[in-house]
Amino acid sequence: MDSIIKLRIGLIIGALFGLLPITVLFSVTLVAIFIHPPFVPEVPSRTIPFTLIASAISMFGIWSGWKIFSIAISSTPALKNKPLLVVGVIVTTLWGLTIAASFKAFIPQIYCFFLTPGITSTVMLVIACKRAALTANEIPGR
């Protein structure tokens, strides 16, 4: 089996366990949160802005994770917006820590679940950077 195939299988398994559960949880939560307010007579005034900000941060983190995955799995990885991807990894990790810390009193094992997107994205970004550097060195004229 070719080494790129082994790498892709590993990246797919990492995405299935590291990115997919949070993506599904985010989608279900987003639907539950935004369907709920029109039917509740008294919604606190700060609920909607907080929900929109939290959703935007979460969407950015999830987008960066899947974008890094798509770059890492490509045959010739090209890191066009590397600073944005690094910021995405940092935001995802810090957001995961924030969410995990807020739920730690209820579910102590929650750290593992909310930190996996940040850890997975970091590992995939390192792999993509290494592969991009190797690809740039192999192609003549670059």
What is the fold's blueprint, element by element?
Elements: H1 3-18, H2 20-35, H3 47-73, H4 82-103, H5 110-138
Helix pairs in contact: 1-3, 1-5, 2-3, 3-4, 3-5, 4-5
Word description of this protein:
- The chain has helices at 3-18, 20-35, 47-73, 82-103, 110-138.
- The longest helix is centred in the C-terminal third of the chain and has 29 residues, at 110-138.
- It is elongated and about 65 Å long.
- The protein has 142 residues and is mostly helical.
- α3 (47-73) packs across α4.
- It has 5 helices and no strands.
Contiguous uncertain segments of 5+ residues:
none
Number of strands: 0
Structural class: mainly alpha
Overall form = elongated
Rounded to the nearest angstrom, the radius of gyration is 18 Å
**Mean pLDDT level:** 87
| Percentage of residues in strands | under 5%
Distance between the termini: 29 Å
> For the report, how would you describe the main beta sheet?
none
Count of alpha and pi helical runs = 5
Structurally, the number of domains stands at 1
SSE order, one letter for each helix or strand: HHHHH
